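Z., the sequence and structure:
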Amino acid sequence: MANELMLKYGCNPNQKPARIFMKDGGALPVEVLNGRPGYINFLDAFNSWQLVRELKQACGLPAAASFKHVSPAGAALGVELSETAKKICFVDDLELSPLAAAYATARGADRMSSYGDFAALSDLCDEQTALVLKREVSDGVIAPGYTDKALEILKSKRKGTYNIIKIDPDYRPAPVEHKDVFGVTFEQGRNEADIRPEQLTNIVTKNRDLTEEAKRDLVLSLIALKYTQSNSVCYAQGGRTIGVGAGQQSRIHCTRLAGNKADNWLLRQHPKVMDLPFKKDIRRPDRDNTIDVFMSDDAQDVLADGIWQNYFTVKPAALTREEKSDWLNRQTGVSLGSDAFFPFGDNIERAHRSGVSYIAQPGGSIRDDNVIETCDKYGIVMAFTGIRLFHH
């Protein structure tokens, strides 16, 4: 492998020259098998690879992530999907390996944000996973390897220009990392925080019933946050993230943003949404956008006379505010992670509205008592990890 790779440009076309290289003169840990990945592609690739590698190590299952602009739109483990989940992720017509199931749900958690994503796979990319990738709008993929058939499928994507990166799974970076900003070099030790279920033992609420599934989902949310631009909050359920709020200046805005995305995932399981009478020839992105609008307060826009005919065979009944509220009020068992402490109980109030039953956060706020009291009001289990996960 080469120790340098020239790029078309940096974050923007005016930022030239651009390259990735090894300062020590050694070989790059990646090989480009197809396409021409750019600067942002590689940022997404390296962050997402770390995420899925750590998820696999922590949970013992294949993992996948869907990245956009250096934060995960979704991340998931290779758990068996219910028929409802398969339909929501639009893979009910495919045979799924555990890795394919992981990517399908990582992609399906927030399909609007995942549009044009960079995918990461913890394991050798198989044919089934390649078939899922092939039919989605995606910029590229990183994995430790590809079967011959998977590589053949992926090379045919985007008229042969799809970005395919192979990474050395044994590569480990130096323990100290550097970053240049405004001509000044920053140095810090890498964030080697090892996130495991064992770090969820400091339960500070009256309810201490933390299930094994909740532990798994909390670990998933925390590892996802480790590679999400801060401030960040992540909701997870069923071995997948269902709402990631990234890069907000206020933690309550993170909680609201991630909560709104989680609500969308939960509402997609509503019978009215599941049974939307889409035309067979509607494009996947148009269908995703239509579903998002249909679940919003602007549903009447897509159901206006003359417009609904572009998407549906018959005009569906709108999902009312009362129906949405009733559906969301039934939801429970959602896990939530935060990359830093909650300063106020309002975050818990918002999380409760999206069915959150389990929370993991560092703790350490002067208002911890108020946050704990709010959890106790709703019977939420909360663990203090003592680990802050800022990522910039």
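The mean pLDDT is 95. The chain is about 35% helix and 20% strand.

Let me know what you think.
H.
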